[in-house]
Design a protein that fits this description.
alpha/beta, Trna Endonuclease, Chain: A, domain 1, five-stranded mixed beta sheet, 5 helices, about 70% helix, elongated, DUF3782 domain-containing protein, Restrct_endonuc-II-like
Length: about 290
C-alpha cells in the first residue's frame, strides 16, 4: 500500500531514526560523513587543529610559569628582605626595651632618693613648725599678759582722767564756748548772745533750775545753739527740752537748733537727727543761710 509522507513527516522520521541507524549501519554512517564533510573538518584536520591549540596553550602556560617563577623569586627576595628587616626591628626593639628598663630602674632609684629626701625635709619642717608654734604660743601668752596689763592700766588712767575731767570740764567748757562765740562773731558776722532764764516748773531738769543757752540772730532767723566741748545723748535731750522751754515762754518757734561740738557720741548724733537738731563737729561746717 502506497503512502505519501509530507516533507515535515520525513524530517521527523529521519531525526528520530538516523542516530540508531548510524550506529548499526556502516554504509549509512559513511554516507552521512561524506555528505557532511564539507561542513565539518575531518578527524586528521581536527586533530591537527587541536594539537595546535594544545601547543599554543602549552606555550602560554610555559610563559606564565616563567613569569610566576620570576615573580616568586622576586617575592622570595622581598620576603628575605622583610625577614631581615623584621630581625633588625626585633634587635632594635630589644635594645630599646633594655634601655627603657635601665632608664626605669634609674628613675625608680632617683624617685626613691627624692622620696627619702622629702621625708627628711618634712620631718625637719614638722619639727621646725612645732618649735615655731611653741614660740608663737609663748609670744602670744606674753602679748596677752601685756594686753591685760595695758587694759588694767587704761582703766586706771580712765578713772583718773574721768575724775580730773569732772573738775576741769566746767572751767574748760566756758573757755571753749567763749572762743567759739568769738569765731562766729568775727568770721561769720553773726551775733551770739548768752540766754539765761529760770525754769520754775522744772520742765527741763525735772526740778526748778537755771536755764542757759546760746541764741543767734542772723538776718532775722532765730537759731538756738548749744556750744559744747563734747555732747552725749542725755545732753542732746536736755538741749531739746531747753529749746521747747524757750519757744513756749517767748511764743516764737526757733528756725533752727544747732549743736556745735568736736566730740559727739554716736548715739547722741542719732538722737539729734530724730529730734531735728543739726550737729556740727566744726564751726566752719555750719551754713547760716538755710
Amino acid at each position: 500500500m502506497n503512502q505519501d509522507f509530507t516533507r515535515e513527516q520525513i524530517k521527523t522520521m529521519i531525526i528520530a531514526e538516523l542516530p540508531s541507524i548510524i550506529k548499526t549501519d556502516p554504509e549509512v554512517r559513511d554516507f552521512v560523513v561524506k555528505v557532511t564533510e564539507s561542513r565539518y573538518a575531518g578527524r586528521k584536520k581536527t586533530k591537527d587543529r587541536i594539537d595546535r591549540i594544545l601547543d599554543e596553550l602549552k606555550r602560554d602556560r610555559e610563559k606564565r610559569d616563567k613569569k610566576w617563577d620570576a615573580q616568586e623569586k622576586k617575592w622570595e627576595a622581598q620576603e628575605k628582605k622583610w625577614e631581615a628587616q623584621d630581625k633588625r626591628w626585633e634587635e632594635e626593639n630589644k635594645k630599646q626595651a633594655e634601655k627603657w628598663a635601665a632608664q626605669d630602674k634609674r628613675w625608680e632609684e632617683e624617685n626613691k632618693k627624692q622620696a627619702e629626701k622629702w621625708a627628711a625635709w618634712e620631718k625637719k619642717w614638722e619639727e621646725e613648725r612645732k618649735k615655731q608654734d611653741e614660740k608663737w604660743e609663748k609670744n602670744q601668752e606674753a602679748i596677752d599678759r601685756m594686753l591685760d596689763s595695758i587694759e588694767a592700766l587704761n582703766k586706771k588712767h580712765d578713772a583718773t582722767i574721768g575724775a580730773l575731767g569732772a573738775r576741769w570740764g566746767l572751767q574748760s567748757e566756758g573757755a571753749f564756748r567763749k572762743g567759739l562765740r568769738s569765731i562766729l562773731e568775727k568770721s561769720f558776722g553773726v551775733k551770739v548772745e548768752r540766754y539765761w532764764d529760770f525754769d520754775t516748773d522744772g520742765v527741763v531738769f525735772g526740778r526748778p533750775d537755771q536755764i542757759e543757752m546760746d541764741v543767734i540772730i542772723h538776718n532775722g532767723t532765730l537759731i538756738l545753739c548749744e556750744i559744747k566741748s563734747s555732747a552725749s545723748k542725755s545732753q542732746v535731750y536736755t538741749f531739746w527740752k531747753k529749746k521747747r522751754f524757750y519757744e513756749k515762754k517767748h511764743g516764737r518757734k526757733a528756725d533752727r537748733a544747732l549743736i556745735i561740738s568736736p566730740m559727739v557720741d554716736k548715739k547722741a548724733g542719732e538722737t539729734a537727727e530724730k529730734l531735728g537738731i543739726e550737729v556740727f563737729g566744726y564751726v566752719q561746717d555750719v551754713t547760716w543761710d538755710e
